[in-house]
Structures are given as structure tokens and as C-alpha cells.
Hints:
By secondary structure, the protein is of the alpha/beta class.
Amino acid sequence: MSRQLSSQSDNKRSRGKIVILSAPSGGGKTTLVKRMLREFTNLKFSVSATTRSPRKHEVHGKDYYFLSPESFDEAVAKGEFLEWEEFYGGIRYGSLVSKVEKELKKGYFILFDIDVKGALHVKAQYGDDALAVFIRPPSDAVLLERLKKRGTESKKSLQMRLERAHLELSYADRFDHVIVNDDLERAGRELTELVASFMNETITN
């Protein structure tokens, strides 16, 4: 089942809006992002810029905009980012204003998958034209188990992610909605209804 706008024609779209998802690592956000992109045909993913190197099969402009540290610094100095953040190992990620505004002007809704502070910064800039949703794990124990199952974390990096998660959880009440991801299917349905209501859409087959 797909969804499309009931209040806008395909030939003449009004300005789009923003949907922001944020969660600690292991919160299940990535799976929910993929579901939203399948559910809503007029929802486009916001591709971030990063200073890290491309991984195998990653494509510039599709997966990320891969920038050198110097180019990233220059973009920061020029105010070209809606938000940006430095993560583990000094790697930086950010959302480019020009890319987001280009799609909004076409009438698309833009889906952000970003960290908590970045999410709140974007929300502050776009106000009622942005829906900010925090995906919360049901408990610390579940979060820890999810991170361990990845098999990609060292003991040190695991501890760092848990400490960051506790900090991020303290910001949850600043979001428009909080969804507890104790059951992925239920959380997906709840998020779908929130996004559909925000986008003023009706279901079509």
C-alpha cells in the first residue's frame, strides 16, 4: 500500500515540509526510515554530507555527499549546513541547506535521519513545517542487546555509544512525539499514522 497527497496535484505541488526521525544507536530508526520511504511516494530522504571515506558500493550524491575535511570546514564557514555534528573518530556529518531547499521547493517532504541535537536544530528553524519524532528503545537492556547483536562494536565503542544514548534520551521530551520501539511492527504503524496526519494524506491502493 502506498500513499500520496490528497490536497496537491502532481502538476502543481505547494512547498513541502520536513519529517525528522532521531534515536540512539540501536533504537531501530534505520528500519523505520526504510518503511516510511516505502509508504510515502512523495517523501524523499535527506542525503547527508560527511568527511568519512566512501564504503564499498556507496555512491556520491546518493548515499552521502563525500567531502574532504577542508571542504567541510569551508561549507561550515559559509553557513551552508542546516546542522552538522562531529562523531566518533572526528568524522563529521551535516545536512546541506541547498539540497534540502531544492526538494522542498519542488513540493517534496524531506525525511531526516539525524542525531538528537541536529534534529532539534532543524526543528527550531522550520517550526510547524517540521515534525520531529524520537524513537525510544524500551530499556537500557534492550538497547545494549541490540548493539551487541550488530557484532561491529568493540567494548570501548559500545560503552561510548551507551553513554551517548543516555545523553540523547534526556532530550526526548523536546520532540513533537516519542515512539517507544518495543515492537517494530507496532512502532511502524504508529509512525506511519503520525506522518500521514502531518502530511495530510489519504491511503490509496
